[in-house]
Design brief:
The chain is mostly beta strands. 12% of the residues lie in helices and 45% in strands. The protein has two domains: 198 residues, STM4215-like, CATH 3.30.2000.40; 59 residues, no CATH class.
Length: 271
């Protein structure tokens, strides 16, 4: 079972698609009269929540010599937190998918067994220093998830030519406000949005030549020591250039023989 290397990058593509959803969120700062002062695009990175918490803990004071290396808020991060098999989406494991690929000199049939359904748990973390920034970010996200948001992912454009709609389901939102300490301590507000991505994982791809001509020889004296063919049935698609997704018919040709010859598989001729 193991030993054949394959890597379809399904999880990687899911991570990229998830990040693309949230990579263009902005907040606006205004004065007391509501006039816009600044528009900030919220940075997004793939990193665990604990990494940013540890980094924020290193800069606990609003004043001091280390303020030049402090993390600027707001910002967002996301990472995968787990995988689980989803039996409710299980497909027939013996069913095969197929696709024909053609290059300059050969035409091949690629086959692959049905994919396996998995749920990928992803957490999106929103770090802000004040309440309004956090509310602006969250309110730009929640209306799009009811409770899912679907993204079309090209799973394989080379061999199988497959696309799939992947739903990202928002499960819940956690809120944490660490507003404590003296007046020189940074306020740290964290929203954690937990998602589930419904993906499929694929096994290896098998490649074989396409059969477009089948010939069968029929014998009337098969019980003898030296049987000779008397009839040949040949079946071909019409047109012969048709692919599996084209509209085509079959042409059956009957040939009759009394020359006592037989087909030689090693040479591909009658003798």
């Amino acid at each position: 079972m193991f030993g054949q290397h394959f890597y379809h990058k399904q999880i990687r593509k899911t991570v990229i698609a998830f990040g693309t959803i949230f990579n263009n969120i902005n907040i606006k700062r205004t004065d007391s009269s509501g006039n816009p002062l600044q528009t900030i695009r919220v940075p997004l990175s793939y990193a665990p929540k604990e990494k940013f918490l540890a980094r924020l803990d290193q800069q606990a004071s609003l004043t001091g010599d280390d303020s030049s290396v402090a993390i600027t808020l707001p910002r967002m991060s996301f990472d995968i937190t787990g995988y689980s098999y989803d039996p409710t989406r299980k497909l027939n494991k013996n069913q095969k998918l197929s696709n024909v690929t053609t290059n300059s000199d050969t035409t091949k049939l690629n086959t692959q067994y049905s994919p396996v359904p998995y749920d990928v748990s992803i957490s999106l973390n929103v770090f802000t220093a004040n309440s309004d920034d956090g509310l602006q970010i969250v309110e730009q996200i929640l209306p799009y998830f009811q409770p899912d948001y679907t993204v079309t992912i090209i799973e394989d454009a080379t061999y199988m030519d497959t696309k799939r709609d992947i739903p990202f389901i928002l499960n819940n939102v956690d809120y944490d406000d660490s507003y404590s300490g003296d007046l020189t301590t940074n306020r740290r507000i964290i929203y954690t949005l937990n998602f589930t991505a419904k993906i499929y994982l694929y096994g290896p791809i098998s490649t074989s030549a396409i059969v477009k001509k089948v010939s069968a020889d029929l014998y009337t004296n098969a019980q003898s020591e030296s049987p000779s063919r008397s009839e040949r049935v040949t079946v071909q698609p019409n047109p012969t250039s048709a692919d599996k997704d084209d509209t085509y018919t079959y042409t059956t040709t009957l040939d009759f023989f009394d020359d006592g010859k037989n087909y030689d598989e090693s040479t591909g001729s009658d003798k």
